[in-house]
């Protein structure tokens, strides 16, 4: 099950690795945003470069804003939230709500679960266990499965 936005990105003239695997050039970032139907503004290019410039990652809006400030990328907190929400809407990121007031954004859009360490705030990918298929309900389609284990290290 592939991501349609990534499929559009991969079908262009630019041959690059998938997001989460070192998109470094502005050309690659522009192609990614264009493929998702997003205008490649300077702020979007900068934030997208931070998100997709390395391995898959989990980041909160606050963490991304601090990272942007550290890199001297002038963006407001509102711009960070708007960009993250646009990337989620286009399928380039997924949202992981770990607490009522804490949302992580995940660059890995393939099906997987998460371990959330309540003692450290760390969010880690984990493979999905085999789960029986949900009841088949007429006129209903399964859109997604969110699996989050809240754990803490033994003391």
Q: How does the overall form come out from the CA principal axes?
A: globular
How many helical stretches? Answer: 5
Mean pLDDT: 83
How would a crystallographer describe the biggest sheet?
3 strands, antiparallel
Secondary structure class reads alpha+beta
Task: Measure the end-to-end span.
Answer: 40 Å
CATH fold description of one domain: Arc Repressor Mutant, subunit A
The CATH homologous superfamily of one domain is called Winged helix-like DNA-binding domain superfamily/Winged helix DNA-binding domain
- SS elements, strand count: 6
Low-confidence stretches: 1-20
Task: Give the arrangement of secondary structure elements.
Elements: H1 4-10, H2 26-35, H3 42-52, E1 58-59, H4 61-70, H5 77-89, E2 94-99, E3 102-106, E4 113-117, E5 123-126, E6 148-151
Parallel strand pairs: 4-6
Antiparallel strand pairs: 1-3, 2-3, 4-5
Helix pairs in contact: 1-2, 2-3, 4-5
Summary of the model, kept short:
The protein is 33% helix and 17% strand.
Description:
The chain has a domain at 4-99: Orthogonal Bundle (Arc Repressor Mutant, subunit A), CATH 1.10.10. The protein is built from 5 helices and 6 strands, in the order H-H-H-E-H-H-E-E-E-E-E. The protein starts with a helix and ends with a strand. With 155 residues, it is an alpha+beta fold. A hairpin with a 2-residue loop joins strand 2 and strand 3. The chain has a 3-stranded antiparallel sheet with strand order 1-3-2. Strands 5-4-6 form a 3-stranded mixed sheet, with no helix packed on it.
């Amino acid at each position: 099950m592939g991501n349609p936005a990534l499929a559009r990105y991969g079908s262009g003239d630019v041959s690059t690795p998938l997001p989460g695997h070192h998109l470094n050039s502005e050309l690659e970032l522009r192609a990614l945003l264009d493929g998702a139907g997003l205008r490649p503004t300077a702020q979007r290019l900068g934030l997208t470069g931070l998100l997709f410039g390395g391995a898959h990652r989990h980041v909160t809006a606050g963490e991304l804003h601090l990272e942007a400030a550290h890199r001297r990328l002038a963006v407001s907190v509102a711009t960070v939230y708007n960009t993250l929400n646009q990337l989620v809407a286009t399928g380039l990121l997924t949202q992981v709500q770990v607490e009522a007031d804490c949302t992580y954004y995940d660059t890995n859009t393939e099906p997987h679960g998460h371990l959330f360490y309540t003692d450290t705030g760390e969010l880690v990918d984990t493979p999905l266990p085999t789960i029986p298929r949900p009841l088949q309900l007429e006129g209903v389609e399964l859109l997604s499965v969110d699996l989050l284990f809240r754990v803490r290290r033994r003391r």
